[in-house]
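Re: that chain you flagged

S.,

Sorry for the slow reply, it's been a week of failed gels. I finally had a moment to sit down with the sequence you sent. For the record, here it is as I used it:
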Amino acid sequence: MNWEAIAATSEVVGAIAVVVSLVYLATQVAVSNRLARAEAWRVPNSDLNSLNAAFATDPVFRSAQFKLYHQGVDRSGLSNDECVAIDMYIVSVLNIYEQIYREVREGTLKEYSIRDFGASSILDLLYFQESWSLYKPSLGASFVEYFESNVISKSERGDT
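Prediction finished late last night. Pasting the structure tokens below so you have them in one place:
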């Protein structure tokens, strides 16, 4: 028996095993990353659905929302109670946007996820545009900077 041949064969088999292991691990990492992205995207959408369901039962919010979307009113066209309801809703939506921003910054989601989020019609409202400065103190500074530069400015220009 030739020990050199056995050693060479063992090295080849070992190298093949290493390559197979690396391919398997790469596949597992890719699957894990896809699952993490799917979950990171599911959570904000689920949060928005829950938020919408909760606010939909509030008659003050429903009235204010109708005025905003169908009559195009600004803050002066709403009662104090309606402004509070809309402000609470918008801050909640902005918190979800900030959650998506954090996932983008960590590399879990792609940057287009922020633009694709289903609450963007709020950004086009005159009410939102005139109230943005009221919401900024409750949000993270890096998020506010990003949001102003990359989301709000594009929304106001009509870019999406």
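What I noticed first: The two ends are 71 Å apart (CA to CA).

Talk soon,
D.
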